[in-house]
Specification:
A 6-stranded mixed sheet has the order 6-7-8-3-9-10, with helices on both faces. Strands 2-1-4-5 form a 4-stranded antiparallel sheet, covered by helices on one side. The protein has 8 helices and 10 strands. With 258 residues, the protein is of the alpha/beta class. Bound molecules: adenosine-5'-diphosphate and magnesium ion. Magnesium ion binds next to helix 2.
């Protein structure tokens, strides 16, 4: 990832943040756009005593910049497994994960870790915010770990949190925020270092329908504005309906819905 690309992306995100929310619809895509994330023929199985549990079998999924994909499948189907493999937290038993065209199986552990830190953001069902730190500090910390000054990191954190509607909650600690607000801070933290891929594992699972709608609205808006590629595992069909694509897992394969 070169500096210019990162900078351009952040500029786009800022420009869009000032404009009104996108009304959805098609994502602009040019001929030479390459997928940000490409899962190529992924197999993943677990040994359970004598039996072999085949969770993913030849799973294929490509996600383009600015595109959000809902992964809707029953509990135990392999959604979290797929997200962990896509995010380089787990190795597949076969197949290749490409991030921005890089075949990740050829990387060393250190290179994988670096790629995951810079290019991948995670949002989980529980927010996992640091309880002793404010909303702002929770979004500042990952940026400082990456080498930004406190001032630069603080500016970006305030900008992101304001974009997500939390401009008046910067100094609140997680316990002083509602569930929806906590989850928006977790989203801001996940994208603080301008990753290319956002992986969300049932991010609104703990929220009531109205709050999830609001959190999800902010999330899709951010994805479109910043050219991120998102896969979001969810059971919420209303939310899935508003994403660019919907896929499910059938016998270990990714199947496009509709
Ligand atoms: N480390 C593991 N060892 C054995 N089985 C596992 C392990 N992790 C997940 N599984 C099994 O793989 C299946 C898919 O799990 P998961 O990806 O968490 O599904 P989902 O997120 O769709 O609910 C489940 O049946 C689960 O029990
Ligand atoms: Mg899961």
């Amino acid at each position: 990832m070169n500096e210019a690309t990162t900078h351009d992306r952040e500029t786009v995100a800022r420009a869009d943040a000032g404009a009104s929310a996108s009304d959805g619809g098609g994502v602009a895509r040019t001929q030479d756009d390459a997928p940000v994330l490409f899962l190529d023929s992924i197999d993943r199985y677990y040994r359970q005593g004598e039996a072999i549990l085949e969770i993913l079998k030849g799973a294929e999924l490509a996600v383009w910049p600015g595109q959000s994909v809902a992964l809707v499948a029953p509990s135990g189907a392999g959604k979290s497994t797929l997200l962990h493999i896509a995010g380089l937290l787990e190795y597949p038993d076969a197949g290749e994960v490409y991030i921005e065209g890089v075949a990740t199986s050829t990387l060393s552990d250190a290179q994988r870790t670096r790629l995951r830190r810079t290019e991948v953001g995670f949002v989980y069902q529980a927010h996992h915010l640091l309880p002793e730190f404010s909303a702002l500090e929770n979004v500042v910390l990952p940026q400082m770990i990456r080498g930004l000054s406190r001032k630069e990191a603080g500016n970006r954190a305030a900008e992101l949190l304001s974009y997500l509607g939390l401009g008046s909650r910067l100094t609140h600690r997680p316990s002083e925020l509602s569930g929806g607000e906590q989850q928006r801070v977790a989203i801001a933290r996940a994208v603080a270092n301008a990753p290319r891929v956002l992986l969300a594992d049932e991010p609104t699972g703990n929220l009531d329908p109205r709050t999830s709608e609001r959190v999800f609205g902010a999330l899709t808006q951010l994805v479109r504005a910043s050219g991120l590629a998102m896969i979001c595992a969810t059971h919420n069909m209303d939310i899935a309906a508003r994403m660019d694509r919907r896929v499910t897992l059938r016998d270990g394969a990714v199947v496009e819905l509709e």
